[in-house]
Amino acid sequence: MRVRLLPGERVLVRTRPNPLPLVGPVLAGFLLLAVGGFALGYLSRRDLAGLAEWQPLLLLLALAAVVLLLLRVVVRPLVRWSSNRYILTSMRLIHRRGATRRTEHQINLSAISQLQTEQGLLQRMVGSGTLVADLGFDRSHAYRDVPQLGTFKEYMVQAISELPLTRMFDGVDMEIDPEYARGGAPWAQQEWRGERS
To answer: To pair with 19 at 20 to 30 A between CA atoms, which of 109, 124, 165, 181?
Structure first.
């Protein structure tokens, strides 16, 4: 699904979370395959005492259990990871997730007051981590397993610095005249000068 861009907006980065959290499910999948293969091999032996008539049913149940566990332990995290997207535009940060039921969370870059990064030992080794966007008023949003965390944060800081200067007026962002941002409104200085002379 494509991002509907606002006028003047462009996509800077489009990425998935780092695949580091998939290491555990993949290792568990290999273990399940080994245990399942051993169980199926054991149940298919001809010398099972008293279970010869139940043997086809037991094999089918063991195979079904292995497949269901593989779906739960390996396929589900893989689908969840592949349906996650982080999209950084010149105006917004968008997090999309979900394969069947999609959810989307958007933050205007102008609303971010501070960026914080968090990395564990393994995350530092692969360059990923958690990016926390502080929105002020005790609100923040965490983006987990962001790949190349330092570079992603640099892109965000650059995009935020390129936004037009704004100020809050009754909860609405309004553009500021660059002269006003440098040292006050020129009209106020003119009025003040006019009163003095």
So the answer is: 109
Global pTM value = 0.73
Q: Which of 159, 165, 194, 196 is nearest to 182 (CA)?
A: 165
Amino acid 183: pLDDT: 53
Which phi and psi (to 5°) does residue 99 adopt? -90, -50
CA R_g for the chain: 28
Burial of 178 (0-12, 13-18, 19+ CB in 10 A): exposed
Q: In what order do the strands lie in the sheet with 103-108?
A: 11-15, 85-89, 92-97, 103-108
What's the pLDDT tens digit per position in 51-83?
Answer: 777 888 888 999 999 999 999 999 999 999 999
- State which amino acid sits at residue 137: F
